């Protein structure tokens, strides 16, 4: 095995059965507690943004330390290359295509020269979807969402709210970005009288996370910590920004110093949460996992470019590896010798079944789960095989992405255009940067994988782009 890291915190506290003799009581005391789970999700953090993933400019000492003492996944994927669909996959264990929530909320972009219009999609997480929070409540968990929701809170009041889908405690999820003077600013939903800077929001999430830990240290809990960082606009702590501007930058056209300050502040938040778990006696046999919701933003959207995802191609909003592959770190104190890289192909759709397997023998739920139980990859470091992993985006992204679907099968990855059915085929083992299109060189492989994608789209009843000519004729 090689060295490792990731984005998701599972905090597992198991009190083993012990025989105790007391001078006044010779009875055997046996206690066992289900694991607490803390899931930490970063927003737009790229695969190569952390030190442990090879970045020499941005600093992430807390996440690097967790990775060096635990495990880093180098084949981890987000459910989508944009935000809301991935959050859907994390909570439900289902492909966003199956749920029907395939775009970020509330994306409506169209492209004039395209033969298609973007697909219609769910504008909130449907209430009949079963979430991991709802399932864990059945096992006696106290549940919390601290931070970003982005699954329908501002235009669907009464239909979408984390409290409606299994979270007992919700704090700080009600921020949104509004366009102001060719950039964006953070506001409380429904109140545009006061703008908030991202450093304030990050600190608020940290405070609320620690408060929840302290108030629930004697219970069994599941806490999702969902940062708004490191999403645009570029807003950083002034002291940290000054530090990065003074620091030697090996790629000044690619690595933004303000973005560096945002990463370091988010990393410090992870460190404060870990410290609170330690101080409250919750870290023994604790599994920590950290994950990003999509790849890093590698274009100048509403300002300067924040980062690049080298050696991966492109970034957020595209079907290339830079948009889909994300950092994921797992740490389970006292359960393995740290410092490993795990190459299992793992996705955010796998979090749901993996968490359930962690706490119950039978992880079956009354809905189709697309994810796979990957617990052995976390607890034993096994590299697990996967037959297929699909992606679907029938929309136009702000970063230039167009309607496409994709399939990773083994080391081969096929990207299918949903506008004209053209294809791209890449061998990720020998061409991680997706530079050589092999679709004409291997027509049989291309044809079979293309058919697999089409059959999968039918099976999941995936939303599809609308043909403009057919749309006009129906009017």
From TrEMBL:
Q: Which cofactor does it need?
A: Ca(2+)
The text of the family note is: Belongs to the sulfatase family.
One Pfam family, please name it.
Sulfatase
Name assigned to this protein: Arylsulfatase
Give yes or no: UniProt keyword Metal-binding: yes
> What Enzyme Commission number does this protein have?
3.1.6.1
Q: Where does the record place the Sulfatase N-terminal domain?
A: 35-359
Give one GO molecular function term: arylsulfatase activity
InterPro entries listed in its UniProt record: Alkaline_phosphatase_core_sf (IPR017850), Sulfatase (IPR050738), Sulfatase_CS (IPR024607), Sulfatase_N (IPR000917)
Organism the protein comes from: Flagellimonas maritima
* Transmembrane portions of the chain: none
Claim: Signal is one of the keywords in the record: yes
Keyword field = Calcium, Hydrolase, Metal-binding, Signal
Q: Which domain of life is it from?
A: Bacteria
């Amino acid at each position: 095995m090689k060295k490792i890291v990731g984005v998701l915190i599972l905090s597992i506290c198991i009190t083993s059965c012990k025989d105790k003799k007391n001078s006044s009581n010779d009875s055997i005391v046996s206690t066992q507690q289900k694991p607490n789970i803390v899931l930490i999700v970063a927003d737009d953090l790229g695969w190569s943004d952390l030190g442990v993933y090879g970045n020499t400019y941005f600093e992430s000492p807390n996440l690097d330390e967790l990775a060096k003492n635990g495990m880093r996944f180098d084949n981890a994927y987000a459910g989508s290359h944009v935000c809301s669909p991935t959050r859907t996959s994390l909570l439900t264990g289902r492909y966003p295509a199956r749920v029907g929530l395939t775009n970020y909320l509330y994306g409506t972009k169209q492209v004039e020269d395209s033969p298609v219009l973007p697909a219609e999609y769910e504008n909130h997480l449907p209430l009949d979807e079963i979430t991991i929070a709802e399932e864990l409540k059945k096992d006696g968990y106290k549940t919390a969402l601290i931070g970003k929701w982005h699954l329908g809170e501002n235009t669907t009041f009464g239909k979408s709210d984390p409290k409606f889908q299994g979270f007992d405690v919700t704090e700080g999820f009600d921020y949104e970005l509004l366009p102001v003077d060719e950039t964006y600013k953070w506001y409380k939903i429904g109140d545009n009288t006061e703008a908030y800077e991202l450093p304030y929001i990050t600190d608020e999430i940290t405070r609320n996370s620690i408060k929840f830990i302290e108030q629930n240290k004697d219970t069994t809990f599941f806490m999702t910590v969902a940062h708004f960082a490191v999403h645009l606009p570029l807003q950083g702590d002034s002291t940290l920004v000054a530090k990065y501007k003074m620091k030697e930058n090996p790629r000044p056209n690619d690595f933004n110093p303000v973005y560096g300050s945002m990463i370091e502040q988010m990393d410090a938040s992870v460190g404060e949460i870990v410290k609170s778990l330690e101080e409250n006696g919750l870290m023994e046999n604790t599994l920590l996992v950290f994950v990003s919701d999509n790849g890093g933003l590698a274009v100048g959207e509403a300002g300067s470019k924040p980062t690049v995802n080298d050696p991966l191609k492109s970034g957020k909003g595209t079907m290339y590896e830079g948009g889909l592959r994300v950092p994921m770190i797992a740490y389970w104190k006292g359960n393995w010798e740290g410092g490993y890289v795990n190459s299992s192909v793992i996705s955010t759709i796998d979090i749901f079944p993996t968490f359930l397997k962690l706490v119950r023998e039978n992880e079956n739920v009354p809905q189709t789960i697309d994810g796979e139980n990957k617990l052995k990859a976390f607890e034993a470091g096994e590299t697990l095989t996967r037959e297929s992993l699909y992606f679907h985006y029938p929309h136009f992204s702000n970063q230039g992405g167009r309607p496409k679907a994709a399939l990773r099968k083994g080391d081969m990855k096929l990207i299918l255009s949903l506008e004209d059915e053209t294809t791209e085929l890449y061998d990720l083992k020998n061409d991680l940067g997706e530079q050589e299109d092999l679709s004409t060189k291997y027509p049989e492989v291309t044809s079979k994988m293309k058919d697999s994608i089409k059959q999968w789209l039918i099976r999941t009843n995936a939303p599809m782009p609308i043909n403009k000519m057919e749309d006009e004729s129906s009017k």
